[in-house]
Amino acid sequence: MGSGKKSFLTSGQKRKIRNNMTGYAFILPNLIGYTVFVFIPVVFSFVLSVMSWDGSQRPMQFVGLENFADIFGDRIFRGALLHTISYALMTVLPTLVLALLLAVLLNSKLRWVAIFRTAFYFPYIASIVAVGAVWNMLFQPDMGPINEILRFLGMENPPRWVVDKDWAMVSVSIVSIWKYMGYYMIVYLAALQGISNSLYEAASIDGAKGWQKLWYITVPMLTPTTFFVLIMLTIQCFKVFDLVYVMTGGGPGNATKTLVNYIYEKAFTSWEFGPASAAAIILFAIVLVITLIQFRGEKKWSKDL
Amino acid sequence: MRTKRKAVKIILYVLLTCLAVIMLVPFYWMVISSLKLNKDVFSIPMKWWPETLHPENYSVIWKKLPLVTFFLNTLKLTVCTTVIQLCTSCFAAYGFTKCRFKGRDTIFLMYVTTIAVPWQVYMVPQFILVSKMGLNDSHIGLILMQAFSAFGVFLIRQFYISIPDELCEAARIDGLNEFGIFRKIVFPLGKPAMATLTIFTFTNVWNDFMGPLIYLKTKELKTVQLGIRMFISQYGADYAWIMAASVCSLIPIVIVFLSCQRFFVEGVAASGIKG
């Protein structure tokens, strides 16, 4: 093609060089930024995890796996790992089930569906600081509206929510479910719209009732989406920070300290970059395992189709 | 049959309305508390509608909190990050889909691999790096650290793949150079994907808390989220003021959300299904 110009040196090689240059020119702005601000830090975090360093002028020292031994010997880290896992266990399934339920309800032919959809989706776009502040007040143990309603309903000693170490994580989990189910509802809605109507029609001819269609067509057809949502939610739970930080600050005691809270505190309040990075690598390992499970699942479903 | 269907419909409406009310009650409570006196926020029995409204709470927090500065800071961060991300992502996506060059697939594989690495894993070394550049506690540092995303490149690339190569081929024969093809053909066709990415980045940066928390220390540089957080820790017991500040922080995103709702929903569907 040579863009119409005829030069003496027109050859395959020269065109190749020019094609290469054009290609690099297009990706370069992003590639440079991405290399500096993402690739290098990712590699650097592995390096830091086997070093001892406080960020000062003193040089780093290689300490091998000592950082990992340190954090696993640290009661607070083991607690953080456990709290994060229990948070994920409490949050993932309710969010998933409620999101699916809302999506199925909204997928029926109703008027004002858009208004309901907006209402359910709205908590997702509201900022965590504002949402955390209002829920903290709703959860206020002595005078808050939630406990007042519970007392009105006859519960004599309602839970003390965010100030009780046994209930604090539950409170965070409730807010998280409330905030994120609208997002996954939209994911489910998109998947529901992809299910062919002919399946339902065939089932109707065979005399299937509404709930039978739901259980024998909708739910199985949504399995790949459910798997995807499950993976996304689990990863999201392991990364939780903001909600905990604004609602409980990791307390009471260390009852709601999560993995990322631990990384944050180690790095930015006690300036121990080594242990912080070791904890970050543990987070990475967890997310990696979940992602690998996702890859296997995706392969399975793409084979089935 | 018809009456039964009607009954089902009514039950559905009632159910959905109840659920919607439950979802939105916290926001109602936020607004109503922002109009009470500080001491009346937790009154027993609880008042769902106060007798007297106190809109002056809003002028009080306006005086106590440099909200305008916070808003302008957040706006600056959001706009700069979004624009840089859009431009570089579109360029890179064009390179990855419509140009042939050595190492293209290897580089793209590197991008895809790092999508799976959560930011929380490398935020510490990233902070060290940005600090060494002398950009700690500055807006530039915060903008640069989140302006280059593999997700953006990936999203736009998925869209550019669906643009037929014949279209570019034809333009090449007509004598357009690569940049011309990008600017005149591919870029305009990619608008839907750009809208998705814009909304995604905009909400993320606007609502971001951890990034500014780590990077911004000077009060004059803080974002709305950080500012409100600071206000909450200073005036912990002035509940009505806290709620008024929270309402203020929500207004811009509500306006953007209600006016571009379609893109929000399409964005979730687009980024969600592919994974």
What would your notes on this structure say?
- The complex is a heterodimer of chains A (305) and B (275).
- Helix content of chain A is 72%, strand content 1%.
- Chain A is built from 13 helices and two strands; from the N terminus they run H-E-E-H-H-H-H-H-H-H-H-H-H-H-H.
- Chain A has helices at residues 12-49, 66-73, 75-106, 113-125, 128-138, 145-152, 168-193, 197-205, 210-221, 223-238, 242-247, 259-268, 273-304; strands at 51-52, 61-62.
- In chain A, helix 4 crosses helix 7 (168-193).
- Chain A is flat and about 70 Å long.
- With 275 residues, chain B is mainly α.
- Chain B is built from 14 helices and no strands.
- Chain B has helices at 2-34, 56-64, 67-98, 104-115, 119-132, 139-147, 150-161, 165-173, 178-189, 191-207, 210-215, 224-234, 239-259, 261-274.
- In chain B, 42% of the residues are buried.
- The model of chain B has no long low-confidence stretch (mean pLDDT 87).
- Classes of the chains: A mainly alpha (305), B mainly alpha (275).
- At the A-B interface, helix 1, helix 3, helix 4, helix 5 and helix 7 of A face helix 1, helix 3, helix 4, helix 5 and helix 6 of B.
